[in-house]
Amino acid sequence: MRIRFPILPLCLAALLVCSAACGQRPSEPGPARPGAEAPPAHGDVMVEGAIGDASTLIPLLASDSASHDIAGLVYNGLVKYDKDINIVGDLAESWEIGRGGLEITFHLRKGVRWHDGRPFTAEDVLYTYRVTIDPKTPTAYAGDFLRVKKAEVLDPYTFRVRYDRPFAPALMSWGSAVLPKHLLAGRDIAQSPLARHPVGTGPYRFKEWVTGQKIVLTANPDYFEGRPYIDGYVLRIIPDTATMFLELRAGGIDRMGLSPLQYTRQTETPLFRRDFNKYRYLSFSYTYLGYNLKNPLFADPRVRKAIAHAVNKDEIIRGVLLGLGQPATGPLKPGTWAYNPRVERYPYDPGKARALLAGAGWWDRDGDGVLDRDGRPFRFEIITNQGNEVRQKTAEILQRRLGEVGIGVKIRVLEWAAFVNDFINKRKFDATILGWTIPMDPDLYDVWHSSKTGPEELNFISYRNPEVDALLERGRSTFDVRLRKRCYDRIQEILADEQPYLFLYCPDALPIIQARFRGIEPAPLGIGYNFIRWYVPRGEQRLVMTP
Known about the structure:
The chain has 547 residues and is α+β, with helices and mostly antiparallel strands. It folds into 3 domains: 36-74 and 202-280 and 510-547, Periplasmic binding protein-like II (D-Maltodextrin-Binding Protein, domain 2, 3-Layer(aba) Sandwich); 76-192, Alpha-Beta Complex (Dipeptide-binding Protein, domain 1); 285-508, Dipeptide-binding Protein, Domain 3 (Dipeptide-binding Protein, domain 3, Roll), CATH 3.10.105.10. The chain is built from 16 helices and 22 strands. β16 and β17 form a beta hairpin. The longest helix has 18 residues, at 481-498.
């Protein structure tokens, strides 16, 4: 599981560029099954395993993947990405962009209803905008909407928004979930029952949430894109990936993300080849070691560069990912249009690491094998989340390699909710191994701008750099792709130089799905984009969704 964004913005002017450049190596499915061409049929239930529970089912208030995965089935935005990473309509049928990109007029779908039967209108969009920018709303996602100069309802199915200056991610920012005004207006959204019982317009309706066990959704028969073929979706919370794998083998779940070991070895058996399909593609994510920059241990960039030289990324990719990934050099996906391949790299060099540490005043003065300065030993704690074996093994390699240059490391593995709420959100950590979903658009404002360091916000390492702030603001304030490219190239150069994160790797996504599910069509966006069109042939259906 990784913390991720609910909005994946894409520059209006960069659409054509990104469509050509944001593709990835096609997924690798398993062999075709007998009856693969069986006609679609309604029925059956998809059971997916997850290592962590949701925190809230109001997406505006959530930052974890489980919450957004569920919300993505319950809610809709005005726009979304298609399989080729082009922006298409969702709750909006169409739109016009005018005034040099400063105005967007959305024409909304008619006849769409909330799951409680109330009609969806432009008033819901206006409410969502207003509650998002409300200072009392505890959300990390207000920044994009604070750029709006005016938002107005022209009629029940027309919504117009104006900006005071160009804003590159403007259109895709409206891909965030629209919330029901009639259930939330005039109430404290942070205390709303919708956090546990969401009401959306999406392809699935909420049925049940048993904390720490499961979340159950049922197909929306009135969904505007057509009723999903699969009658129900169940997210089962299984904190241990080894246990989850046993459940997969035994038929207790239908889908999970495999570890590299599971992908390369444990599923290469006649049973798995017969009963499951595996997929592989470079994920839109990266894993990193993030430092709490308020900790004096990490204040000196020479120390952070020393740690980079002390760590062998190739060793991690070979030993932990089993070769199923690529080294990360920054916060953008290799091969995408804004990625900068020319940033400074830090090859594995323990001698250089020791020299940098010595230059920063860290020596082993008492001969105990641990560096010290001003009477303080160089020891710190890495925290990561329970249920992610890859991150834990990565932490162990870091512990060993840093120990070789005189840095003592303790590893602490925490249950997901406690990890996020009690440590990350409260800034009570030395360093953390975590992952981010990589946005389709390179707008990195919410994670790296110095204004986003407050409670519950995403710059939880407290990174501050005036030049990066200015570049982030400039990059999102123009539609000129070449200018944006220069901005993000320079940001990546600065981050590589200052090392506020030790960017570790971009892993391959390794989903496995029970073979009775058909209609899966790998694409540049991945495999989940057309979930409502997945189906199980009538004769292979196993589960029934109870009323």
